[in-house]
Amino acid sequence: MLTAPILINIPGIPIYWTMTIITMIIVLSLSFIIGKSLKIVPGAVQSFAELIIIMTEYFLKEIIGDEGAIYLPLIASFAVFILFSNLIGSIPGFTSPTETIDTTAALALIVFVLSHFVGLKKHKVKYLKKFLGPLIVLAPIMIIIEVMSALSRPFSHALRLFANIFAEGFMVTVLLFLLPWVIPAIMMYMQIFTDFMQAFVFYLLAIIYIALSLESEEMGEGENAL
Fold it and tell me: What sections of the protein cross the membrane (predicted)?
């Protein structure tokens, strides 16, 4: 497969591990710097960080409600890590950790486990009723359908991010090999826009999946009433 040369490649260690570590170092370093130099009148970097926090707070409250505030650190961390993981692939000599299904699958599994954990924590055994369907006579069929539906979420969650980032990175690489620099440069601007959008879609879906688990009892009651 056609690939661009990688600047940092440690023998015996998968490239996406190296890129993940580099991304984490960048994110943690920026977080430390911003935290140590907060200003009343924020600069560009602090303003961007505050924008992520404000947006995350808004979506958590609108989708989950007041109890969504507890998930702010995790969801905001998802947004920042995925965004920088996507963007690092735009730098020559680097590749996005999210171009690898292993990375996106790990992120999706965290969301999957967390969403069902909070559902069980809130609704206890009643949470399992959603897998049985509205009528007990349909339970043997509905449990198969509901389990397959639940398992499809992390699969589609991981695949969506991986496929989009992989496709855009491959397209820019091909253009760099085949066309003058001007056209690939334009495509790289589009790639950056896509990087932002894919990070937003992933973390918004994470919020929605958590909300669905927290609301499962009320939804089940509504279905039974119908």
Answer: 12-34, 69-88, 100-119, 131-152, 158-180, 192-212
50's tokens? 């505050």
Q: How many domains does the chain have?
A: 1
pLDDT digits (tens, 9 = 90+) for 144-180: 888 888 888 888 899 888 888 888 777 766 666 666 5
114-132 pLDDT per residue, tens: 998 998 888 888 887 777 7
Q: Tell me the CA distances in angstroms from 178 to 50, 91, 183, 187, 190, one per residue in order.
A: 40, 19, 10, 13, 18
User: What amino acid is encoded at 177 in this protein?
Assistant: F
Can you give the residue range of the structural domain that contains 106? 15-225
pTM of the model: 0.80
Is 96 part of a structural domain of the chain?
A: yes
Domain assignment present for residue 8? The answer is no
